[in-house]
C-alpha cells in the first residue's frame, strides 16, 4: 500500500515538473511534496512506530488545509497576500497547543474527539471559503463543479475517518493523492488544452494569409476562411476529404484575379500550405519592369552622355556615351571631369539641382585625355527609397561653340590689325576687378587722315598694323596684362588691367608706361596723341570712356600726353560751357565785324581790316576766346560769311574805302565751295573784287592740297587780292612768296614792337626790299606810336596798321571815323 502511494506521488511530482505545471500554481507543488513526505514518514512509522514521526506527520499534514485555500485563490487568478495566509494558519497552531500538552500521553492526538471536531470545522470553513473562490473563478463550470465535488467528497471521507473510525493514515494519503492526480488531469490539463485550441483557431482564422493543414495522405484537416476562398472550397465539404491540388514552395499562383505566393511547410505528420497575397507587389514590379526596360533602353541609346550621380558627386551609373565623351575607363567622381577653375561652379550646379529640382548650364568639362569639352548640362533630381540622385545629361556643344567662337572672333576682332574691336574691349571693361585700379590709354595717330589721302590706303593699313604690332610687342616685353583694341579708325585702346590697389601708384605706373610706349612708338616715325585715364571698375563704364576720350582730345589740342585729372575735367567743363554759349551766339548772330583802319603816314584811312568780335550781353569779347572753337567745330565758315555780308553791306554804304582785308581761316580755304560763297555775297552787294583782300597765314601751307590750290587760283582769277598775314613769324619761307600769287604782305607786329633793335631794323629793311622786288605791298602791323611810324616811314613803308592809327571798332564808329 505504502509503495503504491509513494509511486503515485513520485509519478505525480515528475509529471508536474515535467509539464511545468508549477507555473500555474505553486500550491500544487506544495501539496504534492507534502503528500510525498507524508507517505515517506508513514513508511518510516510503520517500521519504528515512533510517536515523534506521527507528531511531525500531523503538523505537516495540517498545512494542506490552508494550502487548498491558496490553490482556490490561484485558480481565481488572485494573489494571496501573506496576511491572509497567516490568518488562515493561526487555527492550526492553536489546535496544536493542546496537542503539545498531551504530548507523550499515548496517541491521543487524533483520538481526541473535541480536537477532531475542531479540526473538521476548521477544514470545513476553509473549504467553504475556497469553494466560494473557485465558484468565482473564470473557468468552465464543469471544472468548478468537479473540483468542489472531489474536494467535498474527500473532506467528507476524511472527516468520517477522523471522527468515527480508527484512523488509517495510509488510506487517507492514498485517496488524497489519487484525487489530486485526477483533478490535475480533469481540470488543469483539459482547461489548458482548451485555451491552446482556442488560440489555434483564433490564429488560424485571424491570419490574413490563407492556411490549409493536410495530413501526410493529403486529407484536409483544417483550413481558414482565406484558404477556402482562395481554393474555392467549402469548409464542411473539404474537411477530411482529399485536396486535389498540390503546390510547391515559393510557387506563385493566380486565382480570382489575385496573385498568391505559396509557402509549403512539411512536418512529420502533415503539410501546411500558406497562401500570401502578392498582387500589389506583382503589379508594382510588373510596372517597374516595363519602366525599367524603357529607362535602360533610353539610357543606353540616348545620343547624349548621361550619368546618374549622388549629391556628393559620385557617379553610380552612366551610359557608354558618357564614358566615350570623357574618355573614362571607370566610374569616378564627377569632379574628375571638371576643370580645376570650374570646381566651385560644379558644386553650385549640384546645389541648384537639389534646391530647385533641376538646372541647365552651358559650361566646359574636361575629358580624361585633358581635352576641353563644351557641354550643355541638364540635370534633374530624383528619389529612390528616400535616396536622392541626380540625373545629368551632357550634350556636347563643342562644335556649335567653335562655330560661334569663330563668329564671335569675327565679331570681336579687328581683322586688319588682329586686335580686338571696341565692342569686345568695352565688354571686357565691365568684367574688371572693382578692387584694383586699371588704366585705359587711348592712342591716336597724328594726321592719319592726311597720311591716308597723301600716301594711300595701303600705306595707312600697313601703318595701323605696325602700330598694333608695336603695342603687342610692348605688352609682351613689359609683361603687362593688356587688352589691345583698334576701337575706331586710327584710335587704339590700350587697356592695362589690375595695375595697382593704390591710385597714386597706378597713376605713376601709367605715366611710366606711357613714357616707354611713346619711345617704342617713335620708331614708327609718326607722331601720336596719347590720352589716358586711371580708373576703378566701380565707376560707370560710359564715364570711364568719356574721360579717356576727353584726355585724348585734350592731348590732340595740347600736343602732349594727357592723363585725365580733375583739373582737366574742370578746364574741359568750362570749354564745354563756352562751346554751348558760342553755339547760341551763332544762332543769335552775336558775332559782329570790327574794323581797324589801314592808313597812310598822314593818317589818311585807305582801307580796313575786318576783325571779328563777340558781342555778348553788351560786352565785347576778343577772338582769342572763341576763334579756336569756331575753327575746330568748323562753324567758322558760317560765322565768317555772316560777318562778310555785314561788311559788304557796310562797304556798299561807304564807297570811299579803297579796300577791305578779310581774315580767312585755313579751315575755310580747304572747302571747295569757299570761293563761290564769298563771290555770291560780293555780287549780291555789287562790290568790285578789287576792293577785297583775303588774308591768309603760313599755317595754311601745312595742309596745302589741290583744293586749296584751286581755290586760290579761282579767287585770283576773280580779281581778289591775297595777303600773307603775320609775315616774319612761323616758317617765313620765302619760297611761298615766290610760288604763290600774293599782293600784300603783313609784317608781324613783333618786328614793330622791338623796332629799336638794330637786327629788327635790318630785317625790316630786307623785307621791304624783297617786297619791292616781288612787287608786293608791305604793311607793318601793330604801329602804336609816332616813333615806330617814323622809323618805318624812313625805311620806305607807305601803309600802316596799329592803335596809333585806330583801334578795331564797330561799323558805326568806323563810319563816323571816315566821314
Ligand atoms: P591778325 O590778323 O594779326 O590781326 C591783327 C591783330 O592785331 C588784331 O587782334 C588787332 O586787334 C591787333 N592789333 C592791331 N593793332 C595793334 C596794336 O597796335 N598793338 C597790339 N598789341 N595789337 C594790335 P585781334 O582782333 O584780337 O585778332 C587776333 C587774330 O584773330 C587776328 O590776327 C586774326 O588772325 C584772327 N582774326 C580776327 N578776326 C578774324 C576773322 O574774322 N576771321 C579769321 N579767320 N581770323 C580772324
Ligand atoms: Ca589779319
Ligand atoms: Ca596779322
Automatic annotation (TrEMBL):
Domain EAL: from-to ranges: 575-819
Pfam families associated with the record: EAL, GGDEF, PAS_9
Alphabetized UniProt keyword annotations: Membrane, Transmembrane, Transmembrane helix
Segments forming domain PAS: 196-243
Record carries keyword Transmembrane helix: yes
Keyword Membrane part of the UniProt annotation: yes
Transmembrane segments: 27-46, 52-72, 84-102, 114-135, 147-166, 172-188
CDD domains xrefs: EAL (cd01948), GGDEF (cd01949)
SUPFAM superfamilies the record matches: EAL domain-like, Nucleotide cyclase, PYP-like sensor domain (PAS domain)
Domain of life per record: Bacteria
Domain GGDEF residue range list: 436-566
NCBIfam families, A to Z: GGDEF, sensory_box
Protein name as annotated: Diguanylate cyclase
Originating organism: Thermosipho affectus
